[in-house]
Design goal:
This protein is mainly α. The chain has 2 helices and no strands. Keywords: Membrane, Transmembrane, Transmembrane helix. This is Integral membrane protein.
Length: 307
Amino acid sequence: MLVVLPVRALWDLLVAGARGARRHVLAPLGRGVGWVLRQAWLYVLRPLSLVLFYWPWVGLWRYVVVPVGGAAYTYLLRPLGLGAAWLCVAFGRYVLVPVGSGTGWVLRYVVVLPAGWLYRELLTPVGHGLRWLVRGLCMVVFVWPWVGLWRYLLVPGGRGLAWVGRHVLVPAGNGLAWVGRYVLLPPLSLLYRYVLLPLGELLVGAWHIAGRILRALGRGLRRLWRGWVARPAAWVYRQVATPVGHAVREVWRTSRAAVREARAEVRRMLFGGPPGEPARSRARTLGSTTAADAAPAPEISPRKRRG
């Protein structure tokens, strides 16, 4: 308990602080930020985007591109296209067809027949020779070295490794497995079953008990605070401090009024002037905040009164 109780107390304080921060700070802040962003989108960004990026292009397409494009197609592009098509048909019929026929005859008897003879009598034997030469070079450079490597090095090496694995590694692995199963595993299982598992259960139980103790201690401290501090302080404030404060306030106001009247009498005695009517008492009741008399007589300096 001496080890777990402080850790549990610190954990409960952190959890309580995090919950309070999330409840009273982060959640209202998130709601406020979401409301502000939503209002900004609804009343600022969305209308601004419509004004800047939607309505100008819609108006341009509707009132400029579509009318201008329709008129241009009807009165310019369609007649030009029909004229160009007629010219192309006429050019193809009266120019290209005769030229193509003559070109075909020339190509057949000047190019195709000589090229066929050249291909059969010269290029074909040369191609066969080059293919035989390239095949031989590829076999010498890329096939026979790898075949020899596989046949005389990798296959015997793989057989040797297989023999080592079968006669060395497998028995060694079986021996290690037997040692782990019958030598190491029983002590480890006993250690887990009789030491680690009870220790973990003990720590979990101590953690829960510490939580209950801290909750009970918190409830007791809260009740002690309410019974011995909060309620007596409230009673003293209501029954003692409030009446005493009212009485002190009234005494202060009465004293201040008496001092003000005495100062006015002294000024009249020193500088002269018409005798002023003595101000009545402006004392207030303890339960009222309204003055019992009218406002006090204004203090007028002798110079202003003479003037």
